Amino acid sequence: MNVKELFSLKDKVVLITGGEGKYGSFITAGLGEADARVVTASPFLDDGERVAAELRNKGLDVQARYVDQADHDSIIKLKEQIKQEYSRLDVLVNCAVARPMQTYTSALECWQKSMEINATGLFDITREMADLMAQSGGGTIVNIASMMGMFGPDLSNYEGTDIGTPPPDYFFHKGGMITLTRYLARVLADKNIRVNAVSPGGLIGNQPQRFIENYSKKVPAGRMAKDDDIKGVVVFLASEASAYINGENILMDGGMHA
What we know:
Blueprint: H1 3-7, E1 13-17, H2 24-33, E2 37-42, H3 45-56, E3 62-66, H4 72-86, E4 91-94, H5 108-135, E5 139-144, H6 168-187, E6 193-200, H7 209-216, H8 231-238, E7 249-252
Helix pairs in contact: 2-8, 4-5, 5-6
């Protein structure tokens, strides 16, 4: 197969959760640019519609749908919508994440809410969409984890800023996502479903300048991640170009932990 065909997602139906978010909007664009038929789903339907409309104006096939990852009935409704509208599902990208905890001392109720969405909800939507994928003959799951699921926090990044101690729930569930990736790679293999993860480092955004400086000097690339950096690796894992890669977690941190 020609290498361009290997990386193509033409005619593939792709569901991305949280595709309107910080990393999600770039991933959604990349999937569409690879000619996928993309559905982005989250509770924030207005934001999803905005991102989808912007990408449709560029000629990409992107639609927005509602889902509440903490609500099983909502997940089932989305599953049925995709089945009715597309008759199949080829790729699931788990990008949605809730951030109810703000710091180490946040209320325990915030931890519980985080687990409801980022642990139980993640597994629920993955299992249901894997079932739909299996009905279509198989497919690929790409989990958007984080380097924070692999390493403890580097508190020196926050020196000279008013950013507090990073919240523990994010580290907990991103680490769990990486392990779940390996588990599902084994369990779903007989359904012809591959499962891999990407663990990005920090994405440049509205961080304080001091944080950007603290962070960037530790990266051989000399900078934080930007919008295009994650597109290629997700399209790679979603496509036939990675057909012999399964149960892996790709660290995308510019060499910070080399």
